[in-house]
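In this notebook, the sequence line spells out the residues, with the fold written below as integer tokens. This is how one looks.
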Amino acid sequence: MAELSYEKKMIAMEAIGVIKREIGSSYPYCAGSVTINCVGYDKSTLLYIVNWFLERQSSIVVNYERKQVQITGYMREY
């Protein structure tokens, strides 16, 4: 995967932080879930975010019709 520019990486890391907080708010009782609307992100930034969560074994569901990505899992502190 190509390296992101500094600005895009900061946008991705900010989004990852928000998603982690939302998913982690339900831990340890149940797996959290967040839906991202893909329209707000360019492809490289969205791929960076999705790959970050895939590396942590989160479940990823892509809805092509609605242009959304749903991330589900247990987000503990890493």
Notes: Residues 8 and 16 are 12 Å apart (CA to CA). The chain has one domain: 6-73.
